[in-house]
Request: fold
Amino acid sequence: MIPLELKKELVDQNDTEFSIVQQCKMLDINRSSLYYKPVSVSEEDLTTMRVMDEMYLEDPTRGTRRYASDLAAEKIFIGRDKARTLMRTMGIYAIYCKPRTTVIDPTRYKYPYLLRGLKITKPNQVWQIDISYIPMRNGFMYLCAIIDVYSRYIVGWSISNTMAADWVVKTFQEASSINGLPEIINSDQGSQFTSEEWIAACNGIKISMDGKGRAIDNVYIERFFRTIKYDKIYLEPPVDGNHLFELCKEFINFYNSKRTHSSIGKCSPAMVYRKAA
Reply:
């Protein structure tokens, strides 16, 4: 499989015979991944979502009532309906430290959480995948990342201006083509991960899904998102999609190859992943 970055280099924006859309279709790449155009919203909403993003990293158990209340303390006044709308746009929802007592609405595809009590002893035994909202100076985009739980190595990532299922599938397929397939892939119950495209892409792989609203089921990828935001994105807000791509590329290369973790013997993820693989 041709790596995504090489496919992008093959696109000729001055080609008079084939349009950009046709070239992307022939190369099987998402056009949004080529342009990296951030979603444009009002300056007021961008400011609100930027504060909400920090609040979410600080305490992901906030619901609409608390967002409205805590934002008011920051002199940002919105109602619960507006908070709910912005949460949906950002792809976030309140999570809980213990199972909810209310009945969860059934989805067409629902898989059990397989990681509870599981001893993880090698690379590619368990991967975790998720999507995170990324604030920008003039809009926002989404980052999809996949982490190998044993080594904390980021095996794949990409950015997009939509949370489409096909984008998530392509990110997973590209990671798998480079690193091999995991035995288990864990995600939340978002629409991307309950889609027919995702289920088909995971053929032969054990699918694990968080309990809805569970705070710790996908903890390793959530910690990575927190790290990249506080250590990179918030310190150097991207001016556009291309800038965001370069920031993510720079930080993830550092995170994988140079940033040590006490939980893996003060080694870098790449050292642990490659040594044990």
User: Anything to note?
Assistant: The two ends are 21 Å apart (CA to CA). Residues 98-105 have pLDDT under 50 and may be disordered.
